[in-house]
Amino acid sequence: xxxxxxxxxxxxxxxxxxxxxxxxxxxxxxxxxxxxxxxxxxxxxxxxxxxxxxxxxxxxxxxxxxxxxxxxxxxxxxxxxxxxxxxxxxxxxxxxxxxxxxxxxxxxxxxxxxxxxxxxxxxxxxxxxxxxxxxxxxxxxxxxxxxxxxxxxxxxxxxxxxxxxxxxxxxxxxxxxxxxxxxxxxxxxxxxxxxxxxxxxxxxxxxxxxxxxxxxxxxxxxxxxxxxxxxxxxxxxxxxxxxxxxxxxxxxxxxxxxxxxxxxxxxxxxx
Length: 271
Fold this sequence. Notes:
By secondary structure, the chain is α/β, with parallel strands linked by helices. 28% of the residues lie in helices and 27% in strands. It has a 10-stranded mixed beta sheet, covered by helices on one side. A 3-stranded mixed beta sheet has the order 3-5-4.
């Protein structure tokens, strides 16, 4: 007698080959699936190309619009908005990707008050500028200015720097004169004296103008030592007419020659 045996469905197993997807118990041919994907990708690419071809001009305009907006991210004291526009006007209106950033930067740095400039594009149509102005610490001669590094520059409208001290010297001596000005100012400021002008003659003689009115002759040597003697004299209780000083000569080793306003010269020995 034959005994039929029924195999449990739970024991049924299907071995799947790597890389194949089985649907309805039948393996899917990977070559056919790949071919379908390639065909679909080709159709999508063709459609994109047709759209670009038919609307190329509009797409190009949307992607690369003309740079027409300017944003300045720094505060300027001497460079005006009109001057900035004039310097970069020839670059504005250029398409975003063709815009000349380097040319814009170089054009801005031609302005005598601009020490350094940076320019960058921000999509879709904006130019961002940052301006670093020169810092003038003194006038140099009649027409020029000195920055904090001792460099000479010559901007228009020097009347805006009229309140700066005047430094005078031969060509190439600006660094020496500027350093002497700093040392002299630090020595005299605590006693209420402000250096209005400092001059170095071609023969090496130093002279000052203090508080816009007092002329001081220093000579060639022992400048700070002589100024220390004058500062002591200026603060002495014996001198009650300091506001009437017209000129002071400090070229003496142990004395000071003083001239008062509208009076005869006096010679005072200060040890």
